[in-house]
Amino acid sequence: MHFIVAAFGKDCDDFVLHIYASLAEQERKLIADRCRAAAAILKQKGEKFGFARSKALLRRVRPLSVAAQQRATIERAEASRAHIEWALRQPGRAQRPITFHAAAKRLNDRNIESCTGIGQWTGYQLRKMADRLGINHPHRMPHAAARSAVRELWGHRPETSGREILEVLRRDHIISVGRIYELLRECRGVTARQDPIQKRVGWRIDYRTCARGRIGRIWKRRPEVTARQVIEKLGAQCPVNTRFVQRVLKQCWIAYGKRSKQQLYVGRRALGSWRGRPNH
């Protein structure tokens, strides 16, 4: 490819261009060396470089910059208001309300430019834009209603999982998986804080928190209980395996300190196999 410099014309050959390029590179090095030397001399004399910004100026400027960014964001969102409202009015799959992810896909299928002008629409971005513009999804579940619904479902069946609650609530409403798990953790945390056995043993809070609490309460009433008896007591509503029950019983025995020889023997039976033989 022939390289042409406008100042030299198209008839300048490559040899002359190489010479001029080498001279220009050397000149830039000399300029940089002179600038560094002059800056070092000025620093020795106590001179300061750059724009000195006081803390008072920063306190005045930062709120103004944040407000300007918010105005620019709202202006970009207002330009996409009609597209967002149209996407949220579209029907979803299987006669269900359309999700933000599906609405963003509809916008991308129509080649509608995103609010930032870079990349494609995403469900998270669409939800943020709708909240910023005050556009309420017709089927989006408010946070207070979602909390009460999750608490009600969890109260009827504490062993229920987040996916099961999601299947129930998504029939008529729009709610995210992360929101459901957050509300579930809140319910489990309240139950754990009210359980003295949970505080004593220090179990972690997860989807088996309620099952551990039930096993602990059974053990507190009857310390000689075996794993098989615990499973029969819990029934089909709380499905747990033998190894899990044995581990919970062992943690209860350890957390509640010393026992008599007879109690320790009974405890070994409780921590033994399914048939309850001593675990030596």
Write structural notes for this entry:
This protein is mainly α. The chain folds into three domains: 63-133, no CATH class; 143-194; 196-270. It has 13 helices and no strands. Helix 3 (81-88) crosses helix 4, helix 4 crosses helix 5 (123-133) and helix 6 crosses helix 8. The radius of gyration is 35 Å and the shape is elongated.
Topology diagram in text:
Blueprint: H1 14-44, H2 55-79, H3 81-88, H4 100-109, H5 123-133, H6 143-156, H7 162-169, H8 177-194, H9 196-201, H10 209-221, H11 227-234, H12 242-255, H13 261-270
Summarize the structure.
This protein has 280 residues and is an all-alpha fold.
Report the count of strand segments.
Answer: 0
Structural class: mainly alpha
Rg calculated over all Cα atoms: 35 Å
Oligomeric nature of the chains: single chain
The stretches of 5 or more residues where confidence is low (pLDDT under 50) are 270-280
Number of domains: 3
End-to-end separation? 85 Å
Shape: elongated
Number of helices: 13
Taken in chain order, the helices and strands follow as: HHHHHHHHHHHHH
Summarize the amount of helix as a percent range: 55-70%
Mean pLDDT over the residues: 81
The biggest beta sheet reads: none
How big a fraction of the residues is strand? under 5%
Summary tags:
280 residues, mainly alpha, 3 domains, 63% helix, elongated, disordered C terminus
